Here is the input.
Amino acid sequence: MSKYVHGYSGRENKRLYDQAGTLTALLHEGTVYPKGSKVLEAGCGVGAQTVILAKNSPQASITSVDISRISLDKAKKLAGRNGIKNVRFETADIFNLSFEDDCFDHIFVCFVLEYLKEPVKALSNLKRVLKKGGSITVIEGDHETSLFWPYSDYAMKTIKCLIEVQKRLGGDSLIGRRLYPLFQEAGFNEIRVIPRPVYADEGRPGMVEGFTKKTYIAMVEGVKKQALDLDLIGEKDWDKGIKELKRSAKPGGIFYYTFFKGIAVK
Here is the structure.
């Protein structure tokens, strides 16, 4: 697994919660598991998506795992604050799962593959613990789908810094476009990949606040130190780029981004 490019700060936790809350309808539409289903959430992080999964499928039994005990502790606390009763948390490595073969009815993975050096191996490991005929849902983004107005070369440079930092850490922030072939290589069937675009302008103030400002721009801002340390950009240009990227969240500005939701069957 590559390093988590965004870190584990309180600021990053809040960004994840803001992102999940803003994009609930967009990303979780159609993801409802029936009563009695055994569901594995692989890479639950701080539980931002876990709470949504559990509320949408209250009669399913969900096991949420993550390699970071610190993140799991935060996920447990979040679940407790939300009165979640149908989730069990475990520390686990997606590349070394201890579960028996064919033991889950469904698997859910959100914003995980982009941080892995071997995403096909991860999918293959998950396939092992999935029952025959069971489904896997994977949601990922693609930072090169970012479009904004007013346009700025400096703002685009900061986005490219984020892409490059993640690449150097062994991840792929453009992985959303690769979901179909990744599923194919891992041997899944009945593959469907659905683009889920986000569009924000001043007529959608909730999306401007929740996505443009608190999710996307906050994500880019979070890699400033890494970008400067790697000499990808000068500090003056970085600050100018962030300032100009923020114009997309002001009156007259727009921001567009595409997530990809892939569903396949074992």
Remarks:
- The first helix runs from residue 10 to 28.
- Confidence is low (pLDDT under 50) at residues 4-9.
